[in-house]
Amino acid sequence: MSSTTTSTGAGLEGVIAGESEICFIDGYEGILSYRGYNIHTLAEHATFEEVIFLLWQGRLPRQSELDELKRELHASQAIPAEVAAFLGNAPAGALPMDVLRTAVSTLSLYDAEARDMAPEANHRKAVRLMAQTSTLVTTYHRLRTKQPVVTPDDSLSFAARFLYALTGQKPNEISEKAFDVALILHADHELNASTFAARVTAATLSDIYSAITSAIGALKGPLHGGANEDVIKMLLEVGEPDKAVERAQQMLARKAKIPGFGHRVYRTEDPRASHLRVLSEELGRRTGHVELFLMSRRVEETVKEAKKLNPNVDFYSASTYYSLGIPIDLFTPIFAVSRMSGWTAHVLEQYHNNRLIRPRAEYKGNADGMPWIAMGDR
Ligand SMILES: CC(C)(COP(=O)(O)OP(=O)(O)OC[C@H]1O[C@@H](n2cnc3c(N)ncnc32)[C@H](O)[C@@H]1OP(=O)(O)O)[C@@H](O)C(=O)NCCC(=O)NCCS
User: Fold this and answer.
1) By alpha-carbon position, which residue is closest to atom 14 of ligand 1?
2) What is the pLDDT of residues 58-95, one digit of tens each?
3) Which CATH superfamily is domain 21-221+330-352 in?
4) Ligand 1 binding pocket includes 284 (Cβ within 6 Å)
5) Based on the number of CB atoms within 10 Å of its own CB, is 49 exposed (0-12), middle (13-18) or buried (19 or more)?
């Protein structure tokens, strides 16, 4: 190894890869905070719109600032007709995450400020991305299910507007609050894989749409945001609480990864999972899906006992979303709707104090100087 490289563990485990003022995690104590505000405080008191402002601006909004952000989000939610046409023409059976990734990328073609790198223009694009990602997911779902696109109701909160646009029904207060808390819990998580991908792209001084497209591609994978869809598929296959222990044991015996468990950073309970466990039970009891919560508990106890692994954010969000009536293949796109707040905050922070992100690899290949072999001698 040359003197200019340092060996790291596989997957950059434990490596400090940059500085940020946005999100703090203590994986041993189970602490997560956004801009110094503990996640439990935010889940109890904040709205998702306040969290968006907090992540972007570093402080809580005053009332007039919150009103202005809501006004901006409402004013920005419409998507270009060309992008709506793309959503309507996506092939049947397309993966919603693939549609979302391509649609977000396509938005840039119709944004007159796409190439403007002034901080004010980038902030305006962050607002548009925040508002339009929600519209992309709900519009795509309405079109693919041959239902009319719902006319937005600007009197509703971000959370209620999303659920209304998706289902055509205004949510009750409990569903709205549960979804709002879920959005808050998923909003940011330091240098997770998708945020890191966004920052790497932004650090080349590429535009914010390109950075966010990178992030969506990373979020899609089953080791990251895709896990919530795998969790619900597993629970629905299991079918009843009595079979959950056996299924978990079988998976562990064949060394399969159980979706929704384990984490690169947390060595104790993920504080987001604590809230989602409660939401999963409350909503499950109200909507007739409590068996999903009961199965989840049995799986959790089994995995904890056998492997000392805790559930992560994806485990109880799966049954929570299911009880909210959200289609399974939209679970990961919904993660993107929320994480857009964190991704954009990180991209804006990266632009503010940029340096190209370009690490080194520890070279394990042939030594330099291999003799050339003529084609006929290989
Ligand atoms: C999140 C995750 C990718 C972290 O990966 P990582 O930090 O590289 O951890 P590793 O894969 O090296 O796992 C460490 C050990 O825990 C075990 N482990 C980790 N997650 C596990 C899971 N979900 N089910 C069963 N065993 C698991 C590994 O098998 C390994 O055990 P071993 O040391 O006996 O071989 C991983 O835990 C995982 O794949 N989880 C399931 C997918 C998921 O829920 N992703 C969402 C993350 S928020």
Assistant:
1) 262
2) 999 999 999 999 999 999 999 999 999 999 999 999 99
3) Citrate Synthase, domain 1 (1.10.580.10)
4) no
5) buried
pLDDT at 1: 37
List every span in the chain annotated with CATH 1.10.230.10. 227-323
- Ligand 1 atom closest to Cα of residue 313: 48
pLDDT value at 315 more than 70:
yes
With b for 16 or more beta-carbon neighbours within 10 A and e for fewer, the 291-320 pattern comes to bbbbbbbbbbebbeeeeebbbbbbbbbbbb
**For 137-168, how does the pLDDT look when each residue is reduced to its tens digit (9 = 90+)?**
999 999 999 999 999 999 999 999 999 999 99
Helices (H), the chain: 39-45, 48-57, 63-76, 81-89, 96-107, 119-144, 158-167, 173-185, 193-202, 208-219, 227-238, 241-253, 271-287, 290-307, 313-323, 331-352
Residue intervals in the chain for CATH 1.10.580.10: 21-221+330-352
Query: In terms of CATH architecture, what is 227-323?
Result: Orthogonal Bundle (1.10)
Which atom of ligand 1 is the closest one to the Cα of 312? 48
Residue-level pLDDT at 6: 54
